[in-house]
Amino acid sequence: LTRALRSIHERHEKIKHTVHTAWRYPLPKWGQYAMGCVYFTVPIVGGWCVMQWAISKSVDEIGARGEKLQYKRLQGYGNKTVIDGREEKIGAGGKYGGGNFAG
Q1: Closest to 58 measured CA to CA, from 68, 49, 48
Q2: Would you say 34 and 41 are in contact if contact means Cβ atoms under 8 Å apart?
């Protein structure tokens, strides 16, 4: 049994060596360009598909405009928020930091 396992292991190592050395050769310029396009576009398209799935799940869960939310009242909008019952400006020039870099 050990001899058979050792033989299988040796053949597997020989196949791995052949695959990783003998069959590889440098791609021509057009092949490098094509593979670069593939390696660039696959994550972009995959990410776009994941985002579309997440958007559809969001619409299923809360509705297109938040119709299914239990609490529909908006607490904050834009650069304003409600803190202790008072509406306050946040961000640049307001409470809780934010720098005014425009001028």
Answers
A1: 68
A2: no
As given in the structure block, the two tokens for residue 21 are 């050395």
Whole-angstrom distance, CA of residue 25 vs CA of residue 22 = 8
Task: Record the tokens describing residue 40, joined without a space.
Answer: 């660039």
User: Both tokens of residue 99?
Assistant: 């720098």
- The one-letter amino acid code at 47 reads G
The tens-digit pLDDT sequence of the chain (103 residues) is: 889 999 999 999 998 888 777 766 777 899 889 989 999 999 999 999 999 999 999 888 887 777 777 665 555 566 777 777 777 777 666 555 555 555 4
Whole-number Å distance between alpha carbons of 72 and 94: 26
